[in-house]
Amino acid sequence: MFLNNFKLKPKIHLRYILQSAISIEDQGVKFYSILAEKTSNTAINRLCSKLANEEAAHKKIFQNSLLQWKGLPASEEILDSITAQLKNIGLFWDLSLSKASEKDFIKYAIEQEIKTADFYLSFEKTFPQTWKQLYIQQLVITERAHANSLTSLLESLK
């Protein structure tokens, strides 16, 4: 699982993971918006626009959860460490795929949705009580549904 593999010396606080999740969802919004604008295929445009909206809703869930804590200053060092580790495992969206084909975009998006679902699933062992309170399971299900929708779209393009 993702969070269990982090090599941070201080204890990982949920607020840092939530901030990372906000960044992941924000990049998902940008990625799907780019693909929706880039394509002339109506089915791709429609699905990517829908996914961008859903990723924005996920971002809002994490932002609202983050507001439950006192306004503690973020440790840039810890956030940078988390971000670097997430990038090393390929979790952050690569927004530089502008020259990729639509099929390559979709294949990449499928991988990212699966990785994102696995990342959120890892909350369960690291933050079991908070997991229940944040309804993360629904986000896991939604991210997997995104991967399935993208897979169906990719198969229809063949």
Any chance you could write out the topology, listing elements then pairs?
Elements lengths: L13 H25 L3 H25 L9 H13 L13 H20 L1 H4 L1 H7 L1 H22 L1
Number of individual domains: 1
Record field, number of beta strands: 0
What is the N-to-C succession of helices and strands?
A: HHHHHHH
Largest sheet: none
Number of helices: 7
Mean pLDDT: 83
Distance between the termini: 33 Å
Helix content bin: over 70%
Beta-strand portion reads: under 5%
Please tell me the CATH architecture by its name: Up-down Bundle
Rg of Cα set: 16 Å
In the CATH scheme, what's the topology name? Ferritin
Q: Which structural class do the helices and strands define? A: mainly alpha
Low-confidence stretches are none
State the name of the first-level CATH class: Mainly Alpha
CATH superfamily: Ferritin, core subunit, four-helix bundle
Shape: elongated
Tell me what you see in this structure.
The protein has helices spanning 14-38, 42-66, 76-88, 102-121, 123-126, 128-134, 136-157. The chain has one domain: Ferritin, core subunit, four-helix bundle (Ferritin, Up-down Bundle), CATH 1.20.1260. The longest helix is centred in the first third of the chain and has 25 residues, at 14-38. The chain has 158 residues and is mainly alpha-helical. The relative contact order is 0.18. The chain has 7 helices and no strands. The chain starts with 13 loop residues before the first helix and ends with a helix. The protein is elongated and about 45 Å long.
Jot down its keywords.
158 residues; 0% strand; mainly alpha; 7 helices; elongated; Ferritin
